[in-house]
Amino acid sequence: MKNNISSLHEQYKYKKRVEGVKIRFTQLTILLLFFFTWELAARMRWVDPLLFSMPSRVWNLFLEKVQDGSLLIHTSVTLFETIAGFILGTVIGTLIAATLWWSPFLSRVLDPYLVVLNSMPKIALGPILIVGLGPGYLSIIAMGALISVIITTLVVYNAFKGVDENYLKVVQTFGATKQQSFKSVILPATVPTIISTLKVNVGLSWVGVIVGEFLVSKQGLGYMIIYGFQVFNFNLVILSLLVIAVLATLMYQGVELLERKLTKQMLK
Fold first, then answer.
1. Which CDD domains match (predicted)?
2. pTM here?
3. Which of 46, 64, 112, 214 is most buried as measured by Cβ atoms within 10 A of its Cβ?
């Protein structure tokens, strides 16, 4: 019986591995077909190559920018700002959510203000941040954090409130304080929601930072996009967009890796 169960488990793992390989292969094929079609369409003049460029031109520009070191500088600037904004937005939003859970009075007082702030386009605050914090890294990082902090607060706070009251009653029956209840029940029960929020914040942080660089920066991928647009160099614009897409995907994959590790630890 035990051998039979073990054999079924191995078959299940094998099927999952095969399925994973098929999915990756299909994804790669779609990507290659996309670049092939793009190159063909530009060479055959089905689309305007001045406006839409073509993969071969973008690749040549990529090699040129790598050799002169400018791409590394611009990429490292934007990556630093995005990671800083991502971490700040997530940590501050989670801390505010914990404070609201801790004080129901405060949560009732602040509820309408959070709704108003969430509905407000945070990008519109960009000029105020630039004037207040100066035209540098600080205002761009603040923009990256600001765009994700309110949504993080609302989502995580609702997750805290959604934890089954019976779990809290059980630990409180054994004399747990509010702090102990938060650490042993609320926080572990909401880890999946916090991870999901991290995934959303990856995209939001990139949006905030790129918009901040549009407004004020003299370095970074957002600056490269604006500069490329101003001099009508759309090869540069598309190269910047592709680099952003690759880096955002890597950040998302990093969050997924963190999710798998935390899930394994919770199942132990």
1. TM_PBP2
2. 0.83
3. 214
Asked if 163 and 185 count as a contact pair (C-beta separation under 8 A), the reply is yes
Range of the domain at 210: 57-267
Instruction: Report the distance separating Cα 136 and Cα 122, nearest Å.
Output: 18
Question: Measured between alpha carbons, how far is 47 from 54 in angstroms, rounded to an integer?
Answer: 10
Picking from 216, 215, 241, the residue whose alpha carbon sits closest to that of residue 228 is 241
CATH of the domain at 245: 1.10.3720.10
Contacts of 139 (CB under 8 A, 6+ apart): 126, 129, 130, 132, 133, 212, 216
User: Exposed e or buried b for every residue in 100-121, given b needs 16+ CB within 10 A?
Assistant: bbeeeeebeebeeebeebeeee
The Cα 154–Cα 226 span in angstroms is 33
**52 occurs within a structural domain:** no
Residues 6 or more apart from 126 whose CB is under 8 A from it?
A: 139, 143, 211, 212, 215
Segments in 44-181 forming alpha helices (H): 49-52, 55-68, 70-102, 104-119, 126-133, 137-161, 165-173, 178-181
* Number of domain units in the chain: 2
Per-residue pLDDT of the chain (268 residues; tens, 9 = 90+): 666 777 787 888 888 889 989 999 999 999 999 999 999 999 998 998 888 899 999 999 999 999 999 999 999 999 999 999 999 999 999 999 999 999 989 999 998 888 888 888 877 888 888 888 888 888 899 988 988 898 899 999 999 988 888 888 888 888 888 888 888 888 888 888 888 888 888 888 999 899 888 888 788 999 999 999 989 899 999 999 999 999 999 999 898 888 888 777 766 6
Kindly give, in sequence order, each residue whose CB lies less than 8 Å from that of residue 175, ignoring residues fewer than 6 positions away.
none
Q: How many helices (H) and strands (E) does the chain have?
A: 13, 0
